Protein 1
Amino acid sequence: MLEIRPARPGEEPRLKALWQQVFGDSDAAVEAFFRCLPADFLVVSEADQIRSMLALTPMELIGSGGTAASAWYVYALATDPACRGRGLARRLLAETDERLRRRGADCAAVVPAEPSLHDFFGSNGFEPCFAVWEREVELRLPPRVPSRLDPAAPEEYNALRNARLTELHLDWVRYDVPSIRYQQAISRLSGGDLYAVTVAGETGCAAVERTPQGGLLCKELLISAFNFREAAARIRVQCGGADLRVRTPADPRLPPNPEVRPFGMVKWYRPAGPWANIALGYLGLGFD
């Protein structure tokens, strides 16, 4: 008999085993999540076995006028390959909806790991949103103006991130410090880190990961457009990647750009309210 319930104390080894079976992440990567984030796990169990699971972590959606919405991030949705085709993930998401509504949540968000999952989450009531501007940055010259790249603690990084995004007057997601600490762990496992980047007296922030191919992925670079290329040059020179791909918020004032794409999806439990530009809102890290 199937049972949908919160994970119980002592079930962490089972959750970790299913996580690794489905996603193939290293022991260190899985341990980083459980160490850094006090997530709520919801599971489908059958015959005392966990057949499907997901994790929920809190975040806030901040409107351009400063209004905040209660949001939850749906992460690590995984079903035992031997049990697929039974609708377990759909039942888990439906139960998640009911539980989040009872908690008074305004919405849930997700970052689909691959294109096919956009259709799956779409059929479960999620809508594309949270655009990201992702581009390869061609840098053949070193920085031309004074600049620095310094490792940043999660608290410092989050303060810089919040300040930069507040200045942009768009809808954006505010994370708590444990979520940023998890991103730091992911970055460091790859050979990157969280950084404060300073160009000509202006300080922004960058979350950098090293790719398996030896390149660099800057999962977010938050600094003014005027200093963007110099900041990217400093990252490229100091971190030493073969190439550099950068994600930044989409600018709603610019015409449509093929480098701008939906990054996440959202499901509203209450009317969307003041978040009229959520399609161009900024989720940021996504832990993808």
Protein 2
Amino acid sequence: MTDTTSVPNGWVCLYPQDDRVIEDNSVTEDNRSTSQTVTMSLDNRGLAYADGFFTTMGIIDGLILWSDYHYQRLVSHAKALQLNISSEELLAVLQLYAQQLEQGMLKLVVSRAAQNVRGYGYTPSADGSDCEIWLKATAMRVSTALQLSLPDGNLVPIQPNASAICLASQIACLPPPLAGLKSLNRLDNVLASGELQRIKAEPLASKLASTLGEGLLRDMSGQWVEGTMSNVFYQLAEAPLSESKTASSVHKDNENYLTTGQWYTPSMAQSGVAGVMRQVIIDALSTTQYPVIIRSLQDEDLPKVTQLFFCNALRGIMPMSSLTLLSGDVVDFESV
């Protein structure tokens, strides 16, 4: 597996190492990194059948954020999809790229290697578990001005308040072991994201569009599960508050945002992606007064929601100030 510490421009194939990464040495003195052209076979099973998975990692100060959780994803997804991956070796290579990138994003794509079997089938042998591993490094700012301290002492970015809207798009219900995986088949999220962008572009929705940050999605069973690019947590009107806080003061104190009142998050047992940040928050609150409860979010719950935030590994926590329902009614939340 590639262990170079130089950060490539564009995609690079970490495994297998062959001639699909072609270096172009015509670089200027001001651009000392070698540009690379990556070629991929049309027989790639990720392209043909979405046979694989991906993960996206934030990098700050040369370190992979939540690296332990990304490692767990490598292990669990490789097992679920029966792919042969040396997760320890792969993580070590990713850490070398992170050190060179310093700040930005690493996107890792793992797909099953091309097979000498027609159609969907693959070889029921060790060769059938072989895979291709691709990486793209992108320099970008992933930190925010505000950081929220979790009960376990870790810091997580918290974004400015935005608004959310319930989308008409739905995501698929999947059988085990596919439910919860960040597989390469994300067509339902692609279509949902397109719906969200169209809403933002509507001339009559300019006021809503200016604050619209995420869309809430149902699965095919009608349960509200996640955002277009994130997981969701929520509180309900009947949820208890600690004796030291009142409903009007809870959301004025960022420090206690996650530890005051009962948070719920939908199950990933039949749909959605069990995200890294979702698990970080579940684990961080597991020893507090109000551990996160896995609970479905139904239509009848939405008017009773008092707090709601989305989260992912790059943006951290994204608190919402309101949620527009499919009916057009708006549920307002206390400001953080």
Protein 3
Amino acid sequence: MTTATLSRHIVHGGVQNEPNEKWVPFEWLEPRFGAQVHGEYVVTRPHGVSGSLSAGFWRTGPTAPGAASDGSHSLVYSSPLGDETACVIDGTAILTVISTGRRYEVGPGSIISSPRGLEVQWDIQSPAFKKWWCIWNGSDATANPAQDLLITHASDNPDDWQEYHFEEPLEGAQVAGELYFIRSGGSSGTMLSGVWRSGKGIAGSQVDGKGTLVTPYTGVLGDETILLLEGEVEVVETETGKTHNFKAGDTIGLSSGMHISWTSKGPFSKKLWVITRDELPA
């Protein structure tokens, strides 16, 4: 493993209300419209072990760049930097896919899966709006990527929850909570996303009567980027012993190949997760 890879083996973390001095205008090049400045953002994860991976929060309101005086905001965004998974924290908006005219209304808890290059008109209602975002771009294009938005919700309770069984290199077979998939692929590399939960009555190799689950984890499928939806989590770096504590609303970034101990404190925890790797699935 190279020194460059080892330097990326860290636990990332961030909160929704980062200090104002960390927020900067969001500037990007929109392919059809050129340079754009809309709202402001903060980065909580600047990189992963592979590919182009970043995550953080974006917000707009009456004083934000590009916004109207009442805090409403209208912009076209095609996610040119990569596939984006987002979750609305505050506010409401109407999203219109320009190529088809399909309209989607989103609000707190809405999970927005946007393929790279899809032009979407964002009409954000006053007085303010905030979202968590995770953007991914790999070097290997996939066949037949999505051509539409996929809108789900953090409170969805589908029938296809499945126990999370995985193989840890050192500890062997593990069971840790249950999950369902939102995305099973993206425009490039490996991109998976979904919702995971643990707690009382939910499967786990190490889960106690209070619903606290402990599991070793090295991210064998890829880097994992998380918005913690409910509960409290402790992450301990195996090599250094450094401890990180997170609560609902925080964002977490785990590095593929870095061994940690993950503790979801009882009685219940839930997360939105995105797993990325700069290789196509086997």
